[in-house]
Each structure stands twice: as C-alpha cells, then as structure tokens.
C-alpha cells in the first residue's frame, strides 16, 4: 500500500475491496499514517457538503471506516478507524467541516451493525452509536 501511495498508483476508490479482515485493518493504519502526505495540506471541505458512502462492500467496522475515509477524502482516505477516532474526525480538521450530510447508499446491507457495544450510557447497537456520534456533531445521515 505504501508503494501505491509513493508511486501515485493509489488513484481510485475501492482498492481495499476483497481484502482479508487483517489486511483491511492494515489498510486503515496506512490511511491514518499517510493522511498528511495524502491530503498534502488541502483544507477541509467546507460546511454543508454532501458525501456519498458506498455501502456495498461494508462487511464490518473496519470496512465501514475504509469506505467512509474514501467518501470524505478519496482513495485511501482516512476518517477514523474506531468510534473515538470517528468522534475526533467529525469535529473537523480531517477532511470535512461540520455540519455536513452523509448519504449512506446500500445501508440495508449493514446488518452487522446490530451488534451491541458498551457506552457511557449503557449498551447500544453499533448502528445507534455511529448515528449518535454523527448527529451530536451536526452530521445528517441519510440512509438509502
């Protein structure tokens, strides 16, 4: 992945599709650590933008973050790799300025989001946890 970045061949979305769970996690770490290089000091998209999240290849939380990073920042883009990081990213300085809209295409394919996770307010579904993070930071999520 680093070679793809260095040689400019990481130039289309979806290059992470079909990776194993371990490799998808590795992809996210490359996205995080290459963010400054990849974005090259570009400013965040202005408030009010609409980003389209392609849900067809989202199979788990790691692939969700791969797809979300691409939706906001393009190929190998980073926009979080866990719930705490997502919370940081939606505040700005990571590619998008809130408020913005996230149109989640093929959202019904994300049945795995029913998994329950602990929070400060008790256990919630992963889906509800994601929506809470987005909505608390001014991000409207449109499920399609």
Please provide a written account of the structure.
There is one protein chain. This protein has 144 residues and is an alpha/beta fold. The protein has six helices and five strands, in the order αααβααβββαβ. The chain has a single domain (2-143), classed as Barstar-like (Barnase, Chain D, 2-Layer Sandwich), CATH 3.30.370. Strand 3 and strand 4 (122-125) form a beta hairpin. Helix 2 packs parallel to helix 4 (61-73).
SSE order and pairing:
Blueprint: H1 2-6, H2 21-33, H3 35-39, E1 50-54, H4 61-73, H5 83-89, E2 100-105, E3 116-119, E4 122-125, H6 126-136, E5 139-143
Parallel strand pairs: 1-2, 2-5
Antiparallel strand pairs: 3-4
Helix pairs in contact: 2-4
Roughly how many Å apart are the termini? 31 Å
CATH class: Alpha Beta
Regions with pLDDT < 50 over 5+ consecutive residues? Answer: none
Rg over CA atoms: 15 Å
CATH superfamily: Barstar-like
Strand coverage percent: 15-25%
Tally of strands: 5
What is the global morphology? globular
Q: State the CATH topology.
A: Barnase, Chain D
The CATH architecture is 2-Layer Sandwich
SSE string: HHHEHHEEEHE
Continuous helix count: 6
Task: Summarize model confidence as the mean pLDDT.
Answer: 89
Helix content: 25-40%
How do the strands line up in the largest sheet?
1-2-5
Going by helix content, strand content and strand pairing, the class is alpha/beta
Short description:
The chain is α/β, with parallel strands linked by helices. It has helices at 2-6, 21-33, 35-39, 61-73, 83-89, 126-136; strands at 50-54, 100-105, 116-119, 122-125, 139-143. The longest helix is centred in the first third of the chain and has 13 residues, at 21-33.
């Amino acid at each position: 992945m680093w070679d793809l970045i260095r040689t400019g061949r990481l130039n289309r979305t979806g290059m992470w599709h079909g990776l194993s769970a371990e490799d998808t996690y590795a992809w996210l770490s490359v996205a995080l650590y290459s963010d400054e290089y990849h974005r090259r000091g570009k400013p965040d998209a202005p408030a009010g933008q609409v980003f389209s999240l392609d849900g067809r290849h989202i199979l788990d939380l790691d692939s969700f973050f791969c797809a979300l990073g691409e939706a906001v920042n393009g190929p190998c883009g980073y926009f979080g790799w866990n719930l705490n990081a997502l919370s940081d990213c939606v505040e700005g300085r990571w590619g998008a300025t809130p408020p913005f809209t996230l149109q989640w295409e093929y959202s019904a394919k994300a049945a795995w989001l029913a998994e329950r996770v602990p929070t400060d307010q008790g256990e919630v579904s992963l889906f509800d946890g994601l929506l809470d993070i987005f909505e608390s930071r001014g991000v409207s999520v449109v499920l399609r």
